Amino acid sequence: MIDEVKEITPEMLEGLIETNSNRYEIIDVREDEEVEQGMIEGAQHIPLQQIPESINKFNKETEYVIVCRSGRRSHNACLYLQEHGYKVRNLVGGMLEWNGEVIFD
Q1: Could you list the pLDDT tens digit for every one of the 105 residues in the chain?
Q2: Name one Pfam family in it (predicted).
Q3: Considering the domain boundaries, does residue 23 fall inside one?
Q4: Number of compact structural domains in the chain
Q5: Given 13, 47, 65, 84, which is the most exposed site by the fewest CB atoms within 10 A?
Q6: Cα 11 from Cα 27, distance rounded (Å)
């Protein structure tokens, strides 16, 4: 079992987004009502409890940044995805630390 999760800071992710780096795909694992308050531009919303049934949406060649409100749920999602062979990074501090652009649907 893998307990170690790679991390990315909000500043690092914001820099990648600003330079149009397609290095990572962003997955937001928060609940619907949390996402209604805004998401990181370009993020895909898959609530945490839907990750197992949505695993076929992930590509083992792609690197993912997993986001939640504070970093705890995204850490759990990272552990799950890593155990299934996916490359992931947890956004340190989650949306509470994110100062970049937020979109509203």
Answers
A1: 557 899 999 999 999 888 877 789 999 999 999 999 999 989 999 999 999 999 999 999 999 999 999 999 999 999 999 999 999 999 999 999 998 767 665
A2: Rhodanese
A3: yes
A4: 1
A5: 84
A6: 17
50: CATH: 3.40.250.10
User: 30 lies in which domain range?
Assistant: 7-103
* Alpha-carbon Rg for the chain in angstroms: 13
Residue 105 structure tokens = 């649907």
Q: Which two tokens stand for residue 24?
A: 């990572």
78 is catalytic: no
Q: What is the 3-state secondary structure (H, E, C) of 9-77?
A: CHHHHHHHHHCCCCCEEEEECCCHHHHCCCEECCCEECCHHHCHHHHHHCCCCCEEEEECCCCHHHHHH
In a domain, 96, yes or no: yes
**Contact between residue 39 and residue 45 where contact means Cβ atoms under 8 Å apart:** yes
Report angle CA 69, 78, 67 to the nearest 5 degrees: 25
